[in-house]
Amino acid sequence: MNQLLSEKFNLTTKINYFLILILPISLLAGSGISNTVILLICFVFFIDLYQRKNFDFFKDYNFYFLIIIYFYLILNALLIAKNLDSIVRAFGFLRFIILSYALFFYFNFFKQKLIKFWFFIFLIVSLDILIEYYFGKNILGFSADYPGRIASFTGDELKIGHFYFGFIFISLAFLSNKDKKLQIVLSLLFFVLALIIGERSNFIKVFIMYTLFFLFFFKISYIKKFLVVTFLSLLTFLIIFKSPVLSSKFYNHIFEDYYEMFKKGENIDKEKFIRGNQHFAHYYTALKIFNENKFFGTGIKTFRIESFKSEYNSIDKFYGQSTHPHQIHFEFLSELGIFGYILIISNLIYILRQNLIKKKDFLIKAGILFLFATLIPILPSGSFFTSYGAAIFWINYSFLIKKNRLKTL
What we know:
- The protein has helices at residues 2-6, 11-21, 23-29, 31-52, 61-81, 84-92, 94-135, 160-175, 180-196, 200-217, 222-242, 244-263, 270-275, 278-292, 303-306, 317-320, 328-356, 362-374, 387-398.
- By secondary structure, it is an all-alpha fold.
């Protein structure tokens, strides 16, 4: 470690330090830029390791676990999907595995500096969300065409809620050793902003992360834990019901149709239930695809093809068709089958278990909470295999890589 620290300011390390600093900005700028930054981080990382004669991550069991998953994706794309997009996605997935180990490596050098810079990026995004919420446009003039949603720096892609979900606890890590009053104020501010962004699923995941944090990671009495969670719940309901737009998104869009059916005495059969919610229709289609392709699925990134086939759209063609199932478990099952599902979920359970039994710094807590929230069944999610979602996932995953397996880092 001392030798590495003495060499940490060589050119390749400086380059990757800069690239990792701007990684969150690149995610906001678009997939082309973020993919370029990620590929550069991976390339420079290997040069840096070669110069140091240090490839200790090859000693990590989890690295080989991930490589097995990687080869499964390649075989799945080549033998099952058999289309160019799937093959390219499968081969390109290696960059996220390498990214996670690169982040682990450089956070050992520059943890405080990186977290500080990422925190200020997150703070700027937070202020931008406030500006758009009150004035209708963000500081770049972007606004959401969809009522009740915030666009912020992601423009018409409307992905700022996922960014917020992915970086909120990483940003709170910077505050973990700061003034308690500042921690409370900013934690509450970030919580409220996650709500007013208007992305239901991502906010629910943030709410669950906050709840789990106070219940299991915050050292206060059980009565205080209960009071904190109750306060967050009441605050959420108050903001939702005081805002007609949020009330419509969180209540009407989910329950109103079913309530009207109940009032009229209508039977809510399976087809009506699925038609009543777009995400349920996607889930239903994914399950139908899985039932026909149980072992290996239809291939990585093929839901966008399979869901348009008539045999999978007997209920509602519009709702059933999509680029992905909008739920991580259904995505794994329909595209990778039971073998792929078991491989990936086993790895996530393994790395969570390895961290839950050890003492944890705040970034490890952030990674644990993010993975738990990501794995919640039913709640909608982005595609696991898109560049944006994958980058955010593997950033959080990197905090859970085991230091005791890589002692010379």
